[in-house]
Amino acid sequence: MIKVAYLGGGAVVQRSHMPAIELVDSMEVVAVADKSTDCLSMLEQQNSDCLYTHNVEEAIKVSDLVVIATPSATHYQLGLQALTAKKHVLMEKPLATELDQAYQLVNIAEKNNTILSVSLVRRFVNHNLLLKELLSVDLVGEIREVLVEEGAPFNWPVQSVDFYDPEKSGGGVFCDNGAHLVDLLSWWLGPLTLESYFDDSQGGVEAECELSFSTESGATGILRMSRLRHLKNRILIKGSKGSLRMGLSSGCFELRVSDHSRLLAGFAEERIGESASQSTLDLFRHQYEGLSKLIGESSHQDGQNIVLGRECLTSIDLIDRCYRQRQVLSNQVI
Amino acid sequence: MIEINKSVCVLGGGGSIGSRLVHQLVSNGYSVTVVVRRLQSAVRIGRLKVNIVVMDLLDEPQGNLDKLFHGIDYVIDCSFQTGADTKKVIQQSKEVAQKVLMAANLAGVNRIVHYGTISVYPKDGVTINEQTQCDYSGESYADGKLAAERTFLKADNVTPVTVLQLPIVFGPFMNWTVSIANDMSSSKLIIPDSFYGVCSAVYVDDVVRVSEQALSQEVADNQKLLINGINLSWTNFYQEMAQLSDSFSMEIVTRLEYEQAVKELERNQSPFSRLRTKFAQDGDFRQLVLAQFGFRHVYRLVKQIKGQPGIDKIKTSIADDPDVSRENGNLLPKDRADLFDALPQIDSSLASDTLNFKASNFHQCMQETREWLIWAGYVNH
Q1: Are B85 and B50 in contact (CB under 8 A)?
Q2: In sequence order, what are the residues at sequence separation of 6 or more whose Cβ sits closer than 8 angstroms to the Cβ of residue A332?
Q3: For chain A: N or C, fewer Cβ within 10 A?
Q4: Quick one: A151 exposed, middle or buried, by C-beta within 10 A (0-12, 13-18, 19+)?
């Protein structure tokens, strides 16, 4: 049985991690560390057979796998602590807020032959996997332009005021869900080059941002994100032979070729005849199952349904550079 | 008048008016502490350099509120209590107002500005002003606000209080804009005609301006002031909103037709859909179901119900054309339709005299609202 400790017991742990790990027979939660007594008491009411503590070291000590789900700016320090203690680590995204820190964590994990994975579960959503495959078969020709939008009024049950402190959270929407999207874009399109980055932070954390990028093949792209308004929530890829549009949450594909007069539309399905619906819980459960399998193997180089730390260094680099070269996004209407 | 280096504590500052107010106060150099009940409502103010405090004013020990107000010059109270039990809401509203007053007195706060509502006044008559008699009506929001207002305006208070009684507030992020835009864009909104019922509406930035003005004006101490922008019929207000976009759709029917449609809708609602609505909206009920039947069973059941994506989902997902998802029509909620019977016009001359309040041009405000609706994705260019 793999013993799991959570560092941070906030909303993502309560809503996604814990319900998912409950479905994995080979893992058990042995400890939760959080600075909030209220949070620990609430979790203890649901499962008393576990160590609840303010002390991170105590939690790390009794575990085989440490899940770090604290504000982003603490990821590096806690990751360092867990990896130095030769524990396997599942880090909530982003891996770290600075590239140097991310490199250090990856190197320590590799040196100690422990797993360092990052909870970038959106890579394993059926339609995101299918998009990767469609792009690899040159469906729209040479990619020229990529437009990505994701936004909705914010509704995540934040539990710590640190969330709005840029020093502790590492940033706002770009650092948070942006970590997923930058990872996906790099995974789909290859390394991205930063052209410009704007956000609306005025001393706090951004709720709106806009990244302009280019790809190695010469395509240009824009990523727009918001916690304040509904955006189109889709990726649109324009190529020399046609265009491909995919709903980021609906998973609906739309392919137009040549003169754009005809349209092919549909959803990704894992296997013909099976339900396309895939919940967040499924993704987290598969991630834990993938980790469980990999922990049992002697080599930790590659695993199913998990993203290893080394794989997300390019996206960390881009996010880090965006914040360093940030320009002010002014908006009079809000 | 802008006062530099002054500190303001905004209670309920994560709300739609509060967030805009906080932004303005920060822009004008105030040091701002914002109290929110839930952190997810702080996303707009989270962009700013402000001190965010999570607090349920009702449950918070008095000592914490005393500490919070230490060093604060002004308090603006945008908070309110909610619930179906009117008596409880009245009691809670009084308690919170008393706590705020006690803490403000102890900390030497210069002034409190509290948001009241015109809903405390009777809905018949021709004109209302601050002298119009008002009493508890049985409607929980209005009664809670009246209880708070009466507590704040008691003669023996040490800290001066100004109560701003607000009408319908429209503009960016306001519920009276977002909900109407949602109703009119998702399908045709059906409203009853009401050429007599008066809608008193004010633009959110006018509320922000007069709130800031009230902080530094002694002449408004221990008074309630009615704030208003424009008096127009409810039908006209909805028509003005409908004109903000070609994609908004609205139909006016007679009151009788509307009432019949409401009854029909109530008859047709299936027990399963009632259950689903309750599960989605009622957190206590949801917890009860999950605890009773276990997470795994409910999860499997939900997966079974969700099933395969049908052709309709594909259509609505890919279509930019709103007509694809448009159904036969969407009835204005009954509680909103009931407002259409409110008759009196608001006399806001006292606010004009004491705080120099002057509402902005209505059509200019609607234009700014339209720009925001475009930005927010409710209206196409």
Answers
A1: no
A2: none
A3: N
A4: buried
**What is the model's pLDDT at position A308?**
95
Neighbours of B158 (CB within 10 A): 11
Domains annotated on chain B, with CATH = 7-173+201-228+344-370 (3.40.50.720)
The token duo for A65 is 């796998």
B379 touches chain A (CB under 8 A): no
pLDDT digits (tens, 9 = 90+) for A18-36: 999 999 999 999 999 999 9
What ipTM was assigned to the predicted interfaces of this complex?
A: 0.88
CA-closest candidate to residue A323, choices A148, A145, A179: A179
Residue type, A256: R
Distance CA A70, CA A82 (A): 13
B48 has a chain A CB within 8 A of its CB: yes
Output the furthest CA–CA distance in chain A (Å, rounded): 63
Chain B residues with CB inside 8 Å of A200's CB? Answer: 47
Question: What domains can you pick out in chain A, each with its CATH number?
Answer: 2-121+280-308 (3.40.50.720), 125-274+317-328 (3.30.360.10)
Determine the residue among A156, A162, A228, A331 to mutate to test chain B binding: the one whose Cβ has the most chain B Cβ atoms within 10 Å. A228
pLDDT of residue B311: 47
DSSP letter at B322 equals G
| Distance in Å, alpha carbon of A163 to nearest chain B alpha carbon | 9
Contact B82, B92 (CB under 8 A): no
**Interface residue B218 vs chain A (CB under 8 A):** no
Interface touch B39/A164, C-beta < 8 Å:
yes
Selection from A149, A156, A152, A10 nearest residue A72 by Cα? A10
The rounded distance, in Å, linking the Cα atoms of B255 and B49 is 49
- What is the helix (H) or strand (E) element at residue B111, kind and residue range? strand B111-117
Q: Which helix (H) or strand (E) holds A245?
A: strand A242-247
Contact A204 B296 (CB under 8 A): no
